Amino acid sequence: MSRIVMAMSGGVDSSVAAALLRRAGHEVIGVFMRHGETEPAACAAERADTTVGPTQSLPIIGVRADHKQGCCSASDAADARRVAENLDIPFYALNLSDDFGRIIDYFVDEYTAARTPNPCVVCNNWLKFGKLFQYADSADAEFVATGHYARVQEMGRGDLGLLRGLDAHKDQSYVLFGVSREYLPRMMFPLGGYRKEQIRDIARELCLGVAEKRDSQEICFVTSGDHAEFVRRRRASADSAIDNRFDTAGEIALANGTIVGHHAGIEAFTIGQRKGLRVAMGQPYYVTQIDAQTCRVTIGPREDLARRELTAHRANWLVDPPHTPFRALVQIRYNSPAAAASVMPLAGDRFRVDFDEPRYGVAPGQSAVCYDGQRVLGGGWIE
Fold first, then answer.
1. Burial grade of 309 (CB within 10 A; 0-12, 13-18, 19 or more)
2. Same domain as 318, residue 198
3. CA dihedral (310, 311, 313, 318) positive or negative
4. Pairing of strands 60-61, 44-45
5. C-alpha span between 75 and 17 (Å, rounded)
6. Distance in angstroms (rounded) separating the CA atoms of residues 360 and 381
7. Which among 5, 1, 87 is positioned nearest to 54, based on CA atoms?
8. Are residues 62 and 142 in the same domain?
9. Are residues 312 and 287 located together in one domain of the fold?
10. What angle in degrees, to the nearest 10, is found between the helix axes of 12-23 and 74-87?
11. CB of 115 closer than 8 Å to CB of 235
């Protein structure tokens, strides 16, 4: 059996994943990654043991001010530790707040540049399947496991592929496209062959105490639950150091230039957004364009969102990098279906996607992920 570092968030998915690995006879090391932003009123847990090392705990601080379900609070850490005790596996907390600062900077920079960030993808690339592998090496662990609904499968002749999870409603392969291909042989997803309801049943059978816990749906470091307010606060704090007022307020306009309203900042908008426009048009209108230079937000009817093509950069391939055009199913958001398209590799780690049918809500900054059936071929960031 193998020694495995298991990323434990305190939720039902990672808890059951750890249990399944333990049941299979593996030596499991539970690890909680502390990387959410701390609120002033946060409580501290695990203060007794503050030594640092591959087999020691670190302070865990953080609780959501709005009580929404996140994934990095002190209560989550406590849940993860209780599950680890139940399973009789060692449990350690890693303080990755400094490293996670890069993700927060990326998040803020993308919104203020009129792009829509995807911090979960970046977290997987940099931390869960980046820093966590460094920790695994220090602990002489062969694998890193998470509670993602995805699968790593032998495709023949030693070729490993990343596949969608069996549960189509919970599949998380989209947010894993950016992991390094070299890590595939060391990645484990114990939940990939299960459906969510089965996972909750297993948690109840094992009396893990998190069987009914809600799935995390919030951005873990946005402790207020308001990402626009978070971006404003972070930028205002940074700009105050150089005596420069941060302001992205501007006009809301139609495609023909007619001004129909004003907004407090472009960080509150994303392409395809319908709610929160605060402009009465008599029918549903959507954000169709955001200009970072003028801070103008353009809105229009749904048909104005239709796009048949996109280009993506910083491509990451989990197969041999393609050099000729190919057919694929391309997914442009985590919660949108993949659509048939032709993909043209371009120079400089870029590619172009031409969809068979128009797609709606193609947002710069989001990921375009290419699939061959269930298999993730790779993807990139929409320009």
1. middle
2. no
3. positive
4. antiparallel
5. 19
6. 17
7. 5
8. yes
9. no
10. 20
11. no
- Which helix H or strand E contains 164, and what residues bound it? strand 159-164
Q: Which residues are catalytic?
A: 123, 220
Q: How many domains would you assign to the chain?
A: 3
- The reply to whether 160 falls in a domain is no
Where would I find the H helices in the chain? 12-23, 74-87, 97-112, 119-123, 132-138, 196-205, 227-240
Whether residue 373 is found in the same domain as residue 311: yes
Q: How far is CA 247 from CA 32, 265, 291, in A?
A: 37, 7, 14
Range of the domain at 333: 305-382
pTM of structure: 0.87
pLDDT digits (tens, 9 = 90+) for 191-207: 999 999 999 999 999 99
Structure tokens, 90:
């060692």
Q: Are residues 197 and 294 both part of a single domain?
A: no
Phi, psi angles (nearest 5°) of residue 104: -65, -45
72-87 mean pLDDT: 88
Q: Is residue 239 part of a domain?
A: no
Q: What residue spans of 117-195 are helical by DSSP H?
A: 119-123, 132-138
Q: How many CB atoms lie within 10 A of CB 378?
A: 24
Question: Which strand (E) or helix (H) includes residue 352?
Answer: strand 350-360
What is d(CA 329, CA 343) in angstroms, rounded to the nearest whole number? Answer: 9
Token pair listed for 207: 């009396």
Verify that 270 and 375 share a domain, yes or no: no
Amino acid at 236: A
Q: Is residue 62 predicted with pLDDT exceeding 70? A: no
Question: Same structural domain for residues 288 and 311?
Answer: no
Instruction: Assess if residue 236 is contained within a domain.
Output: no
Six-digit token pair at 43? 């409580």
Query: Which range, of 46-50, 187-191, 233-237, averages the lowest pLDDT?
Result: 46-50
Query: What amino acid is encoded at 152 in this protein?
Result: V
* CATH code of the domain covering residue 374: 2.40.30.10
Q: How far apart are CA 293 and CA 30, in angstroms?
A: 46
